[in-house]
Design brief:
Its main location: nucleus. The protein is mainly alpha-helical and 1319 residues long. It contains 54 helices and 6 strands. The chain starts with a helix and ends with a helix.
Length: 1319
Amino acid sequence: MTTTPFQSWVASCLTSTTPNTTLKSSARTHFHNLSTPTNLSPSTTSIEQDISSASASTPNGALALLVSSLRPVISGSSDEARINALYCLEGALEGCTSLTHGVRQAVGYFLVESCRNTVVNNDELFVDGHGLSEEEVTAKLRALDQKLSSGKKNDASSYSEEVRDCALSCLKALLQSNLDMFPTSKSKSGSTVNEALSVLHESLELRMDLSMKGVSYRCNADEWIDSERAMNAGDGYESNYYDMYDTILSTTLPRAKRSLCFSLLDGALDGFHQDVIKIKSLSANNVILPTNVKRTMIKFASMTARCIHDETDPRCLLQIFRLLNKVQRVMCPLLDTIASDDGNGSMEIDNILLLFPSTELFDAIAPYYPVQFTPPKNDPHKITQEMLHAALMAVLCEEGVALHYTQAVEDGDENMVIHAARMFMERLDPMRSSDYQSPSGVDSEEVDKLEAVGDLSKLLLVSNSTGEEEKGKKWSLNMTRVSNGLLSELSSVLSRIHEEAVSKHTTDTWKSLATSIRQFASSLAQSLETFAVSTGGKDNHNSSSWEAFVVSTINRLSPSLESSLQGMHGRASTAYLASLAAGGGMESLNKVLESCIPRFLGVLSRIDKDSRDQALAAMRGIAALMSSCRVAMERWEKENNGVKIHPHPLASYLPAILERISVAFDAGVADGEESLLSAAVAAMESMLTSADLNLLDDVHVEQLSSAFSWIAEAVLADGSSNESMITFTSEWKKSCARTLGVFLAVGLQNENQSSSRLHTLAENVFPRVIESATSPTETQSYHPEWITLAAACSNGTDQIARKIVGVILTKSVGALQSSESDCSPLKVLSFMCRNGGPRVIEAFHSLAAPNATYLDIIHELCKSPSNDANAKGQLSVGISQLRLPATITQEEETCRSVVDAQIERADSILPCLIPAFESPLAAASFGIIVDLLNQLLPPLSQWDEAKLCVIAPLLAAILSNAQDIRGLLSDISSEVLKTMIGQLSEFIISSKHEMKSRASAASCLFSIFLDADVEGLAVSEMIGDTVSKSLVESLNILCSDGKNISAYGRVHDIFNFIGQWGSISACKGGSYSSCADEIALFLVEMACTGASSFPFSKTLVELALQSEDRDKVSMLPALSFGSMISVCNGNPFWRQRIVFKTLPAVMRVVQDEAKSQKSPPLGPLTVCSILCCLPSSLLNESHGRQVAPLLIAGLVQLSKQYIDVIESESSVVDVLGINLAAIIKMLALAPDCLIRFAGVIISSLLRLCTYTKYNEWYFPMQLLALQCLESMARIQLSKTVKLREKDRVINALVNVIDHPSVIVRQSVVHVRNFWYSLS
């Protein structure tokens, strides 16, 4: 007899003593092969036919046969066999691509019973009422309930926890499987579509029913079911199963098992969603579900919500939050309807029972808001408070829910959005009777309120919505699901909290809160207005929503603009309404202007001493509203492709506003009152930038011209011509200067319009402003006219900016040609670049000949001075006029002095020019600057060096501020880049050139090196060849002449360049990491052994010098290595990598030095550098004990020769400082390694501390030594050592109390007192 695959699987289940996961994979593969398209054929059989005629050749038949084969094993007594059987069944379900409804139903109910705590015979849970009377049926039901409640469950054995979990996993795989579209029985109507829809409706209900039963049984709900049957006996012919979902006690399970229950519900939703998609395809997206299906959906959602009760584990909370949001996305669009078909052709209207249970979901999750969670340290699950908050907000905001209607919401209606909005509002403004308290995790009240505003934004604004129906819209559907009463209440809360925040502007958080409220209110007003306009104004609810939020706020706040304008309420109301006007849409703008402008004008109609404060507040309010008008109009034009608004919103108010401001301005001039004038000038500035001046008649234009003539005189006068301006502050002049700049921007661009009077005035004032701005000054660092020009460029057109920048460049070139010591035009240009907006930078780099350009300035800075006039003329005749030629040395000295003077002049000018190249917009001039630099490389004369001092900083400024450096460098060929890098390298390491020009070249080189898109090793090899040759040549010179200062300086420069090269390569990473590794090893070996192969070139470099000269030169690579690993940019792990690569080589030297009897050289400097930069986690006790003797030996040697150290070069002092810093770090991290050297360390430190002469660059070393002394007193020394060293330290420090340096004296006293207090 042939053994089928199922029989072999059954045998494996029975014989395996441990869970056999191989069965699962085998079953999955087998059923996946059966489910391939070639093996599938439509199934039109019934449930009974599928099971009775099961065939192993079809997925449905094979699954039915497998279940019947495994049923005895699962019902057996061996847990291992049960688990293996369920593994096999789960693999089979995962392998099936689709199942018929009949097979899913049969397998599902079988698996549901396996989730119980006991094995129950399904046949005994029912009473056959055929041929029985009502009394007999009732009696049998009572007997069944008594039997179940007494615990007699048909002698069935209990399932283990593992078996029930496996059954739950199988059930999830079953419910996730796809549905075979063909019905399981023939329909009487004969309609294929109706048959398919009927099966799909049954499938929807089955998936939900099985998942709810599985969770209920897994949570041990049997006892409650039994008691429920006893109470409801006689109500029907079968026991009530759905009532068990009313009490789900999933929190009694361990976390992993609760998570498994949630996963089952999630899998049922996946299958449910697949069925809904099929229904949409069959019904042309018109999904109409029977009433019984909808009721089951409501029960499913309610049960899922109750699963969260008492849940505290963050992993389960995150899972259930996401599950609830999935329930909303899948079911909410299907339940949010009014009428439904009950399946029998009738329509049932049930607005309460058939709606999604949003209130129940809200009640379940509301206790978790706001989320209070602090993750433990080193949390492997990486769950954060932000993740939990985002998942919770997804449920509260119903993210991803695709609603298909916008139904009017009346006061008293309830939905998730209304509930969430009220909860957020309560957090924002807790009522006195409310029990809400700020969470303990929130630092302050304002932070709590700020988070509430953010949550309201997520709820009601479109930017945070992910629903498919809202893509491309400018409003959120959530916004339309709140009532007008709630919107009115929200507007009241926002304005009230805004006033509170404004009145408490004590911290930045309160300011942020006020700003956030204004932004949210204006955005919501804009959305409401856009929604109302898009519906054509036909829906009264849509327009009334905007009125409820915007108009009610205006009507409530605007009366205060007359009664208490100068008070806190008036100021806060003005700011709130101005923000509403700026960002709330054009209807909101017009409504605010209509309600507020007349009130402000009414206040300004009476300006006297008693009402002066109100007048000031009114003018500031008018200025704020006009600025809001400008912002709103710019936003409108941007959103509507440049279409301008007609008529202008300020058209009807502009004449009256100008008259009131002119009266206030004249009153301020007459009384000499600065505050009134400042308010009037600010209002004029807002009017110029916001209003259309062409709407003014001649009388009003004349008023405006007179006012600005006076302002121009105030800005341009030095104070002597107008005594009334002498007492005004600089802030007043700045305000006038800004306003004058705006006037110039408006006046200069109105040449062809009707405002010719303003244009003429602007043309007359402009030359005076330029002349005054570019005149030298010694009394102040800037002119008010600079502000005027910057404001004109910022508020004017591109043409005006080019005009102003062109005039400034022309004057700058003229000043440079006349060799003025104070180049004021360039100072003006620098100020304009920093404060005039992007138009200044664009104009600076776009101007071309015949106008003056920045290239003319560069040419003047790079131009060599002309020869003496007599040298150019004809030679004088006569022997007495003959002159001997100057020597070469004299010519070089003369040329050098001229070059130095030119470089010094360039240094004074470049700070004014560089701001124009520090903007990303300067990338337009990148190619020109590169060409100029290439013409100077290699520098062939001292004048080329002077030119490099000008060009290189400009190129470095462009590279350091460009947004896409790779894009800029891609326009230059790789060969040009490589040539430039090689020539710059040679120039930098050459000591023959001027230091400032070399520093500028280094800045350019490393900016290019960081971002050049060339192969790293090729560039490294090119630089290596150049540098290695120069280093070997310089060392050979030192071998023959150890006192050669020039060669020593060149070696010093080369090692500095190598260190910088290594740090740049390490920061860049990638293919350059190997370059950094080789450079680090080279520097370490040179410092420790005096010989190493140069990176890439493989040239052997040796310090073949005498002992004294060798120690002096060995400091240079050590210092260079210390500088290299001290860089903090780049990846945070590259320093650990470098230390890991170099530490073994250093430790070998340390061990050799420990065995040597000779005095240690200055090689320990490398060890000190590594210790200073090494992370504390990498410094273990073993390393500390190995390097401690070397550190102490170096300290002793330096302390014995401290007089020579102090009077030697600064590099030796650097060695001492690094040595002391390393000892301080050792004392902090591994003090036990230094305890046995306490006496030696203290003696050496006392020698370094007792130097009493005045030497500024040695003071830091003394402070470090004193810090070491204090640290020595803090470590765990023995009592004998402390007492012995205490007297010696106190007596030695007495001599330093009168040190010339104050900070050293204070430190000495502090350390001496600390040692004196030791007991």
